[in-house]
């Protein structure tokens, strides 16, 4: 590490308070309005202080020109951690990256105020610091994308769980209303959910209502057949309801064999069959 590089690190260490103050002010001026409400002023200061201290510690060991060395790993991890926290709080990618770029602007301004004697060394060190902060911005961008993907995957899983409710309409009778398009991943969730409920409720009749499925093709039909086959292995009798005329024509046209599967046009018809199987009778009560 050069003598001027050591001098620069000393300048930053001595003017730590000024750098943190200017950095926070810069963030406020660059699209971070309302961030105190999202993460709190104290937490914002803590994040900024921790990142600055980690950066100075790494630079003190190998300089700003070696940001890919192991000594800078703690800085990279901290940038990724802060970015992930802010992404989950609702910060945009622009706000997250601006957080790093604002520090770069402040550091260069601090160097300018110190009025270095050797302009050549000053420019060289500015280039080096710019490169280091740009690397940190790339790390922040990568962490933002990764966190957003994790959030989207979790939300998709939550939507899958919500879209496959198993309703216990009577002792031993389950109804699984299917709504929307079926694909392999969702079909697996449907099968697992139904089998778990069959075991937990000790049910022996399961109704798959496909009234809300807009399209039935060969793949969808195979998914339904596999689900029913799995339920039968668990000892439950299965029936499909909600087969509309257009779906019936499609199934026949595709040559899908449902001859071994009990079907009903409506959910009401399927429930009547299920009640008959359990020797239950629905009686109209005339009393008001």
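Sequence proposed for the structure above (288 residues):
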């Amino acid at each position: 590490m050069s003598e001027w590089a050591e001098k620069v690190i000393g300048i930053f260490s001595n003017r730590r308070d000024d750098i943190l103050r200017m950095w926070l002010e810069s963030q406020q001026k660059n699209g971070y309005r309302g961030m105190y409400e999202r993460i709190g002023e104290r937490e914002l200061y803590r994040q900024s202080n921790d990142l600055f201290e980690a950066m100075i510690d790494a630079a003190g060991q190998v300089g700003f020109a070696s940001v890919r060395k192991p000594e800078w790993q703690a800085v990279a991890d901290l940038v990724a951690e802060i970015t992930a926290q802010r992404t989950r709080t609702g910060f945009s990618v622009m706000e997250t990256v601006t957080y790093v770029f604002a520090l770069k602007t402040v550091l260069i301004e601090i160097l300018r105020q110190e009025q270095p004697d050797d302009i050549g060394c000053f420019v060289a060190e500015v280039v080096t610091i710019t490169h280091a902060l740009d690397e940190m911005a790339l790390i922040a961008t990568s962490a933002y994308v990764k966190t957003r993907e994790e959030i989207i995957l979790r939300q998709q899983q939550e939507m899958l769980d919500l879209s496959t409710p198993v309703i216990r309409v009577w002792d031993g009778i389950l109804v699984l209303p299917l709504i929307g398009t079926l694909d392999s991943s969702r079909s697996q969730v449907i099968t697992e959910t139904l089998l778990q409920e069959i075991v937990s409720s000790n049910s022996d009749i399961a109704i798959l209502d496909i009234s809300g499925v807009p399209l039935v093709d060969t793949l969808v039909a195979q998914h339904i057949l596999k689900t029913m086959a799995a339920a039968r292995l668990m000892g439950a009798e299965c029936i499909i309801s909600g087969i509309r005329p257009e779906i019936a024509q499609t199934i026949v046209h595709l040559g899908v064999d449902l001859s071994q599967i009990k079907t009903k046009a409506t959910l009401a018809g399927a429930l009547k069959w299920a009640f008959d199987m359990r020797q239950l009778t629905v009686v109209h009560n005339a009393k008001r």
